[in-house]
Amino acid sequence: MKIRISSIFMMLLLVTSCGESNPEAEKAGALASQQWLAIVDRGAYRDSWKQAALMFQSKVAESDWVKMVGGVRGPLGSNVSRSLAKTSYATSLPGAPDGEYVVSIFEASYEQKELAIETVTVVKRDGTWRVTGYFIK
Questions:
Q1: Which residues pair with 47 in a beta bridge?
Q2: What is the pTM (predicted TM-score) of this model?
Q3: I want to staple 45 with a disulfide (CB 3.0 to 4.6 A). Which of 21, 66, 105, 109 is the partner?
Q4: How many Å apart are CA 23 and CA 16, to the nearest integer?
Q5: Which CATH number fits domain 2-136: 3.90.870.40, 3.10.450.100, 3.40.50.300, 3.40.50.2300?
Q6: pLDDT tens-digit map of 26-62
């Protein structure tokens, strides 16, 4: 898990420093992220894995994802609120093929945690935005 966290931070540093802008893509990517987070919020972890990008699925097995996300999200309780804090668009991220990416950062509140920062990375493939990374802090 440490490698995954490190690569997400590296992606965030690159995305925020690259200076690319695509408001339309950022809006669509943030919406896809919110829809995916709603699946996770319902506790439908298997469905969230199935809705994720192939890139995501190839890095973590479905059963491992269910254990990992359940172990992190379960103790937090239900999501109380979530607001989009920032989006960033990029066409290149470390360790990932070139393409269209949007990184969305959300401020969230849970029953057992007043403030959590969620970072969701989506990639556009065949006209559809799909999650390729998720981190909660």
A1: none
A2: 0.85
A3: 66
A4: 14
A5: 3.10.450.100
A6: 999 999 999 999 999 999 999 999 999 999 999 999 9
